Amino acid sequence: MTRPTALRPTLAEPTARIAVGALCAIAASAAVFLLLDLYAVVAMRSRLKSAISAYGVGSGRWIFTLAILFLAAGSAALLVAVVDQQLTRWRSGATVALTLWVLGLLAIAIFPKQDWSQPPSISGSIHLTASGIAFVSLPIAAVLLAKPWLRHGTHGVHARRTRLFAWLAIASFSPLLYAFVVAAVTGVAWWEVVTFGHSERLLAVSEVATLAVIGTWVLTRK
């Protein structure tokens, strides 16, 4: 991937508005999930062992769906701002990966999770596949976005910070990857290998933080 050659010297006002709107949407999504977790812990005495997607089952599904759509919309807007600021191009690996993250989130919102102690369903399988694609795509996008700018005098700091958070997200995914590998080798259900809810929340926090770092980079003038 080659470095863009015509980086904007300053951040255009429309781009700034898009980036700020993106960060606000992402923050709103994170706040909703935080409130859902607080309610589960305080009112329901939950230990948060269940997946975040469990909030998408039942009468409260609309809250989960709305939060995911906020996250998807914020991520899509952030992609527009990143390209408009010429940190990457529309035809780039970073753009493709970030697009897969957004599409994965949309699929998660549309297709609810299932109880994996029951026989697999089409909806549950799509939800699981979309979750895997989304969780993997975002850190890959961040690594690819940062790579051309690592040695840049002005943008190098932001690029290295973006890469760091991307690798933290990848590391956060390792317990879930371990669970899938153990399940494939031993036949033990993957959700019994690790405390899935805790692992998924750690991954979610690291990925939202990665988005925030990218958004901060966009808002920083050259």
From TrEMBL:
Entries under InterPro entries matching the protein: DUF998 (IPR009339)
Residue ranges the record marks as coiled coil: none
Keywords of the record: Membrane, Transmembrane, Transmembrane helix
Keyword Membrane: yes
Domain of life: Bacteria
Pfam family, one: DUF998
Transmembrane segments: 20-42, 62-82, 94-112, 124-145, 165-190, 202-220
Entry annotated with the keyword Membrane: yes
Protein name: DUF998 domain-containing protein
Originating organism: Rhodococcus wratislaviensis NBRC 100605
